[in-house]
Amino acid sequence: MPAPATIVIAGGGLAAAKAAEALRGEGFDGRLVLVGRETHLPYERPPLSKDYLQGAGERDKIFVHDRSWYAEHGVELRLGVEVTGIDPAGHQVTLSDGEQLGYDRLLLATGSRPRRPGIPGADRPDVLYLRTVDDSERLRATLAGAGRVAILGAGWIGLEVAAAARAAGAEVTVIETASAPLLRVLGPHVAQVFTALHREHGVHFLFDARPAEITESGVLLDDGAHVEADVVVAGVGADPDTDLARAAGLTVEDGVKVGADLRTSDPDIFAAGDIANAYHPLLGHHVRVEHWANALNQPATAARAMLGRDGDYDNLPYFFTDQYDLGMEYVGHVPPGRTPDVVVRGDLDAREFIAFWLDEEDRVLAAMNVNVWDVTDHTQALIRSRKPVDRARLADPGTPLDQLLPS
Asked: 160 burial class (0-12, 13-18, 19+ CB within 10 angstroms)?
């Protein structure tokens, strides 16, 4: 395969910026064009629901690089426009302003978009979503003057927004269709930690509750109850932005399906970040996760592959959250539909513990450390070992984690 002369990156977020960085770092000296629909320079999204949302972070700190970096590294920025079409046979993309760009390799890093509840009122202009820096700034300004806030969804975004709203002094009601927050990810035992945390800080939960309509004054539930609110925030998940890939005839299955080298079904098109449903050589199946760590790290593998070099992406999924006085890191992956056993090391009530999710053969699938630090190297090693562990020793804080690793 000949070396590429032109590489186009469709997307303007963290994955796009890190891909440009990796390509130049790998020695690519051809034409490099980054196309992003937002007018902002590529930035990191985790602060948007954490410190930046609460006014504790500076705006300049969220950007991956300043504008001079792109100029110095020969990266052509097309901001405020987006790729609207791909011609794989002609190796050409069309932009929303009508410009057409030829490419030898194309990276799709279009990310994800907030899911809208399928109920009347979800498209009201006063219903808030959180995805972009503009969303975060609008939400922060709105929370500053809000008396009552209703949040649809008790996932990570919903809970982080709840913490920010309480910090702003608002009354907060979280409406969740499941019986606990984060139930699908954490299971009922560990999920209660987050229920208790938020209740201690004054958040009111409505579990097993189904919104029927968003009204001018709040949220109507399907049982006829009405949650009064000045502000409604929808945090019911996100969907991968795969419209381009689907229209181009690429294989799309819960995101753009790619190999471990992040190559799509077209040999000259790659995908990274939220949209990539990538084969994971350690886990033995495809995984798509909307995590900061993927957007940060996958582009390096994609860059090498675009330049014809070997490499598979085998980093374990990783994410983190900060809510009130709780800090958490999660590593690993529990496949959907699995109901693994949970072993806890430490004190759930004190919110200082490590939780381990084990399969039927007592192998660690995932681990979450809460207010316990400097352990992720060990928890990742346990997962990567693919070896059974002794449950009693795993639960014993007196047994060093590195002693549980196979020799």
From this structure: buried
Picking from 381, 379, 368, the residue whose alpha carbon sits closest to that of residue 407 is 381
Helix, coil or strand: residue 24: helix
Distance CA 40, CA 29 (A): 25
Hey, what long-range contacts does 96-103 have (CB within 8 A, 24 or more apart)?
96/37, 101/6, 101/8, 101/33, 101/35, 102/6, 103/4, 103/6, 103/7, 103/8, 103/268
Find the angle CA(197)-CA(199)-CA(200) to the nearest 5 degrees. 65
Q: What is the CA radius of gyration of the chain?
A: 22
What would the pLDDT profile of 95-118 be if each residue is shown by its tens digit?
A: 999 999 999 999 999 999 999 999
- Selection from 303, 98, 295, 124 nearest residue 217 by Cα: 124
* Tokens 């562990």 sit on residue: 389
Q: Which residues of the chain have pLDDT under 70?
A: 1, 407
Closest CA relative to residue 245, chosen from 114, 107, 115? 107
Give pLDDT, residue 2. Answer: 81
Domain annotation for the chain: domains and CATH numbers: 6-113+239-306 (3.50.50.60), 127-234 (3.50.50.60), 325-404 (3.30.390.30)
Distance CA 382, CA 393 (A): 13
pLDDT given for residue 336 in this prediction: 80
Give the type of residue at 275.
I
In angstroms, the CA 5 to CA 378 distance is 42
Query: What pLDDT is recorded for position 1?
Result: 67
pLDDT recorded at residue 163: 96
**Helix (H) / strand (E) containing 200:** helix 183-200
* 285-307 residue pLDDT tens: 999 999 899 999 999 999 999 99
